[in-house]
């Protein structure tokens, strides 16, 4: 039975795709947050000179 045109087949695709996009958004936000700590670790920081690209994008 379709309620407002939403069938079971739609639900089987919509829920996993929604979860994927929410997860991707959260992962992108975490990567963006972690860029503020880029090359600042005492253990992994190394010697980065001015103008050199960061060690990871």
UniProtKB/TrEMBL annotation:
Assigned keywords, A-Z: Membrane, Transmembrane, Transmembrane helix
One of the record's GO cellular component terms: mitochondrion
Record field: transmembrane: 6-26
Protein name: Uncharacterized protein
Source organism of this protein record: Papilio xuthus
């Amino acid at each position: 039975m379709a309620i407002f045109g939403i069938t079971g087949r739609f639900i089987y695709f919509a829920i996993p795709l929604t979860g994927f996009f929410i997860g991707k958004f959260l992962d992108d936000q975490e990567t963006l947050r972690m860029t503020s700590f880029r090359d600042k670790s005492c253990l992994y920081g190394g010697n980065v000179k001015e103008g050199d690209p960061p060690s990871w994008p």
